[in-house]
Fold this sequence. Notes:
single chain, 714 residues, alpha+beta, Beta-galactosidase, Chain A, domain 5, TIM Barrel, Immunoglobulin-like, ten-stranded antiparallel sheet, eight-stranded parallel beta barrel, 21% helix, 31% strand, binds alpha-D-galactopyranose
Amino acid sequence: MKLRTLILGCLALTAASAMADELVKIQTDNVDLILKVKDDGRLTQAYLGKTLRDTNDLGWLEDGREAYITHGPEVYFEPALDVIHADGNPSSFLRHTSHATTSPKAGVQETVITLEDQKEPLTVRLHYVAYTRENVIKTWTEIVNRQKKPIQLKKFASSMLHFYRPAYYLTQFNGDWINEAQMTTLPLAFGKKVLESNLGSRADMFASPQFILSLSQPATETSGDVLLGQLGWTGNFRFTFEVDREGWLRVISGINNEFSERTLQPGETFQTADFFFTLSSAGLEKASHDLHDWARRHQVKDGMGDRMTLLNNWEATYFDFNEDKLVGLMDDAVRLGVDMFLLDDGWFGNKYPRSNDDAALGDWQETAGKLPNGVGRLCDAAREKGIKFGIWIEPEMVSQRSELFEKHRDWVLMFPNRDPQEFRNQLTLDLSNPKVQDFVFGVVDGLMTKYPEIAFFKWDCNSPIMNPYSPYLKDHQTHLYVDYVRGLYSVLERIKAKYPELPMMMCAGGSGRIDYKGLEYFTEFWASDDTDPAERLFIQYGYSFFYPSKTICAHVTTWNKLASVKFRTDVASMGKLGFDIKLSDMTADDIAYAREAVRNYNRLKPVILDGDLYRLVAPYQSTHAASAYVSKDKGHAVLFTFDIQPRAVEHRHNVVLRGLDSNRRYRIQEINLMPGQDTWVKNRSYSGDYLMNIGLDLFTGNKLNSRVVELIAE
Ligand code: GLA
């Protein structure tokens, strides 16, 4: 073969131009997304599902639906893209011009498909990153204005996916403060179902930017075709699920375009948010395992690293503390055996000291009356006691009673000529303004520069954007919601670049803000201010579908005193364990128990934080709940069982395990026992086969009762 022909052949492999019915394959170990380039250049989604093993069948694939539908050719249903061109033409007809696949690192393949409008100078690039082993696909879109004048983007989805199945079941995660991630499943029928947020900063207060879509029938943990999808965007999101008259479902995911029409200048490229999804043909468990593995390996800040246990002072003191009280609490932390003391809200402000939540946000200097020797003395005390020191901030916010507000009203989101509306007595700073970004970066950087021993930040965000008007953006107000989030990312990027090892908790009055793009910058998130352990079983269960346990912060507090400290701690031990309680609120037995539970947790971290989660009994299905964590080599497992509100007369079934090796024997031992508590679950050994077929009689008829059982392969 001549060299020229060879070179041309190679080029064609990586950058194929439009040919009749060419297939573009985005593949992971278990999932195929196959797009078809029609001979007229249209791009369709020919297949999305379990990997097709025999490539001889690919020729039989139907066209399917247009992959990224625009307004113009499609006027019946909602499009992914809606552009008003510079000449006022509101239609876009996209045609494939090229595509290319590269491998940025082992196990990761990126495909970029370029589409162009037939008449208007507009380029759209669809990006797909396939994580081969983890079966996760990340997808986003770039929209390029090649016109001589600005164009208007009315809709700009990250992704559009199509399904054609006999039935669809959507599980959504919604709620409110102290009631996050509540799950509801509903069938989808003709018409539209929209899940969205318009809240701006604390964007996920009412709904999480994620969903579960069961195809054909409701998926179970171990069966069914199911897609788990999430928008990586720490702001307003929108998912549209629309079933048409033929029974096709389209799923459009992206930044919420409501109040967010964008003007795109000549030569400018708009990049959408990332949409992440995984598809499992073996039910929810497999989908969660894949997502958790992907999150740890590829997405979360320090995803493979360890996590620190801690004692937080928020519920122990609220705003009422001084240096002595905090140092006393550090002694509690030492007695519990946790790694860190976390100082919460209330340490800052001098002209307007923060003695409650109506002042001082923005004035990030220690209150002299409370901390005469500053944070430095607290760092010293922590070091002397052999623990780490962490600190709470809420740097995107400002109180009207603050020096920052007096000095920089122009940095605050407020409508001109109107009194600002507050949420929790505070307002949101204008993060679209680079000067404000510098200020917010400076809150972390200033503290770290002065006190390099600070080992952890809890970054809170208690208010939605209540007054969506940016003094900085002037006549581009519809850019605010997107530019706010971009401003936030630019700050977080600078922090991550300068402090790559610094662990940070993402918090927003509980989990009013949590998504996987945010977790690129945070090691963990605060799942809820609701620490009633019975409620936490539901909240943590909800988040467990998407997030690995090492990211889900769970603290022991005094909420629900009907539940024992043991029950509260056992629930919290399924996530990233912490305490937010004074030892004076605990009995001597409780303290002895808690110390032992922390020791066990430290020993079992590799299993709980990095193993595979098996949701054995869902709190939604029963008056009980059970989950197990199994190490990747199946040699070690921890089983948590809970009796929440058992009925007086009920049929109690064994807890049947999954994920063990049926051919090995496991020695089982109940751990996290109260001093003097007896158990039959002691030093017995069972085969994996027995445990996964017959299971163990661990549930009881006692209310708010819990058991933790360790299994070690012999
Ligand atoms: C939010 C957080 C709490 C606590 C308070 C402090 O509500 O979720 O954990 O930090 O703020 O004001």
